[in-house]
Design the sequence.
């Protein structure tokens, strides 16, 4: 009889480490991440060796975040881990903490001062700086996430070896010097999948960072980047800055992954949309931009889509969220994490009901568009959705099947 069969099965199932210990490891990992997040780094600006300030705002604080806040606070979507469960929740945050990252030294923080003090973005140069700042935040945050995963893997492996050693000792009745398990379990496979995806994301971000920096320093390099800016008098109580993905099939029947940085920056009497990316995706991104600027309600659709299908780095006015009934709030938070749609696809339900209703009353819409927008108010929020864990498992299986692992 193999006395280690039970231990090996627990390793493969990922159940060798008990839940309390796993939660402790998760807490340590999160705590390490937040400590690192709140500490100064080397300024991200190229060739600068100075220490960053602790809190560079990605989205302007006084000219934008303050405007859509209630009592200087906002709400943002946050992934929570409780026990062995995952959930999305809306968390309250002060405008001093919202959208911050340890990015720039005091000197390079000043390059954004002009439009921050003016509380408006009214030139392509300023929009380019805001897009660049968003790219820098993505780089810093994803590097921190990657470091967190690497450290978590080491701690997990060490604890797994320790638990296996204890199990062996209890079975054979004597001390064991050392145990080192070489193969991966499902937890390590999930972690390695995340590591690969973040590494791929950082490769893109590093490339686009260099292109945007060159374009900022020398406008003759504009042909290497994609930029479109929309300055609209729409007042939308959302601030957003992040990276979105879209998988498409091009005219030659090739599968392509499109990436775009979007900023939605609210000001006192307007909202500025900054749509940026690599120039290799210019044709597709331009086409979508030309489509949404045809009508304010299409712009609203695009913002809602990027919130749900693009990035979780957005902040909403608490009053707007709190006006939604609980069923709708629950549906949005579940949908947010499990949807398979991309930012080029519309959401089937309405987030900004009051704005949409106002547009439907005051603006002329083509009949087909009007009907589809009205239907968003009647969307069945009782439609069953996959659980977060089911969605994660599907992505896990797809990743390892497509990578031949």
Sequence:
């Amino acid at each position: 009889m193999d006395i280690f069969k039970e231990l090996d099965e627990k390793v493969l199932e990922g159940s060798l480490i008990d839940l309390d210990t796993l939660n402790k490891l998760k807490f340590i990992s999160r705590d390490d991440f937040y400590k690192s997040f709140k500490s100064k780094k080397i300024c991200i600006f190229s060739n600068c060796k100075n220490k960053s300030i602790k809190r560079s705002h990605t989205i302007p604080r006084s000219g934008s975040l303050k405007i859509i806040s209630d009592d200087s606070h906002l709400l943002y979507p946050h992934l929570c881990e409780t026990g062995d469960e995952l959930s999305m929740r809306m968390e309250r945050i002060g405008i001093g903490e919202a959208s911050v990252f340890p990015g720039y030294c005091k000197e390079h923080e000043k390059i954004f001062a002009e439009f921050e003090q003016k509380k408006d973005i009214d030139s392509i140069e300023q929009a380019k700086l805001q897009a660049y700042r968003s790219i820098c935040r993505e780089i810093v945050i994803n590097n921190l996430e990657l470091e967190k995963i690497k450290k978590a893997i080491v701690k997990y492996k060490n604890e797994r070896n320790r638990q296996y050693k204890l199990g062996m000792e209890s079975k054979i009745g004597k001390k064991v010097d050392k145990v080192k398990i070489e193969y991966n379990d499902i937890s390590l496979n999930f972690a390695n999948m995340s590591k690969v995806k973040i590494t791929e994301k950082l490769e893109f971000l590093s490339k686009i960072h260099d292109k945007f920096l060159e374009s900022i320093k020398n406008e003759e390099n504009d042909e290497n980047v994609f930029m479109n800016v929309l300055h609209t008098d729409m007042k939308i109580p959302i601030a957003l800055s992040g990276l979105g993905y879209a998988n498409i099939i091009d005219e030659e029947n090739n599968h392509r992954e499109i990436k775009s940085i979007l900023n939605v920056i609210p000001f006192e009497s307007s909202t500025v949309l900054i749509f940026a990316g690599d120039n290799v995706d210019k044709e597709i991104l331009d086409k979508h931009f030309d489509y949404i600027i045809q009508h304010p309600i299409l712009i609203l659709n695009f913002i809602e889509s990027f919130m749900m299908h693009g990035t979780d780095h957005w902040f909403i006015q608490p009053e707007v969220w709190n006006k939604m009934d609980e069923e709708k709030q629950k549906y949005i938070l579940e949908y947010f994490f499990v949807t398979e749609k991309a930012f080029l696809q519309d959401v089937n339900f309405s987030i900004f009901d009051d704005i949409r209703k106002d547009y439907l009353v005051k603006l002329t819409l083509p009949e087909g568009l009007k009907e589809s927008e009205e239907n968003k108010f009647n969307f069945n929020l009782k439609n069953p959705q996959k659980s977060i864990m089911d969605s994660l498992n599907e992505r896990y299986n797809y990743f390892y099947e497509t990578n031949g692992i």
About this structure: The CA atoms of residues 149 and 296 lie 41 Å apart. The chain is about 50% helix and 15% strand. The longest helix spans residues 124-172. The longest strand covers residues 238-249.
